């Protein structure tokens, strides 16, 4: 069975290790204290809001990019780049695109083009995202770390585009580039993990577990540099995916549940919810329609009208459409399928989602199961 569910769509944002939305302890308190001192001297506090794009660009033009970065972090506790990531995590993809695009033009800093490429990928604009990556790699003077992250992102996009041979080559280059940078074990872990996904997608199933085992070795090396390893969510998710494409739905269900719990325990709630949608689908495929329906309905409450959760929403609609098909509810089935297609075109891995939809709805390939509950 040559069908693959695809990646969760959030992995590229963590490439390279610990570069998340880290708040500076006491930053907001410090800003308040400085304002208090200024007021006590008879001056007015600044009204400059550096999360406002127009004010941000004006500050850059007036005082320079370095001043803007320092002032933004003092005011918000995070870097301007991470502010774009925050916008994306809040489902404000259009704002994130404008933020990265305008700051990239104003500062000529290549990290903002990388951010723009990430947003475009996350919103299903793979062609534009690939062009951004190629430009970064060929035309911009990106450092080794940004080059490694760009190669990793490019590999993820190529998997979504079903160009598995090229994806494996690019991800191998990402792994080697991370390896040339001291202590970048997190990046090496991510590159190997994504190579395992590519191996599933290309049908090289015997390569998957060795790649995962090697990835986990680099994951553990993070402890040697004082960092906590990534949780086991991705490891179990990949094994669930492998079991699914092999037709072992019981193992896929068990591993998906382990992944969902591991993501939740490590605070990665978006990924945990994504796995909840996969669990619902696997419950259906293992003959548990009532449990599948209940979980899918619960997930729907979380995902409805939330564009940042488009992939999870697409999975959910596919599960519900299959339930409608098996119960003879054709009107609702067609409505669910239309919704699934709509979510898919705005998500990472849109082509894989459409392949999944067609596979699940094929009565010969996936007959309605003997229901146990």
What does this 3D model show about the protein?
The chain is mostly helical and 373 residues long. Among the domains are: 23-77, no CATH class; 247-373. It has 18 helices and no strands. It is globular.
Main features:
single chain; about 375 residues; mainly alpha; about 70% helix; globular; disordered N terminus
Tally of contiguous helical segments: 18
Structural class: mainly alpha
How far do the termini sit from each other?
A: 27 Å
Q: How does the overall form come out from the CA principal axes?
A: globular
Instruction: Give the ordered list of helices and strands.
Output: HHHHHHHHHHHHHHHHHH
Mean pLDDT: 84
Quantity of strands, as a count = 0
Binned, the helix content reads 55-70%
Q: In what range is the share of β-strand residues?
A: under 5%
Q: pLDDT under 50 segments (min length 5)?
A: 1-45
Q: Mind describing the biggest β-sheet?
A: none
The value of Rg in angstroms is 22 Å
Describe the secondary structure blueprint for this structure:
Layout: H1 27-40, H2 53-63, H3 65-76, H4 80-89, H5 93-107, H6 110-122, H7 126-138, H8 144-160, H9 164-179, H10 185-202, H11 208-221, H12 233-245, H13 249-265, H14 269-285, H15 289-303, H16 310-327, H17 330-345, H18 350-361
Quick gist of this model?
With 373 residues, the protein is an all-alpha fold. The chain is 70% helix and 0% strand.
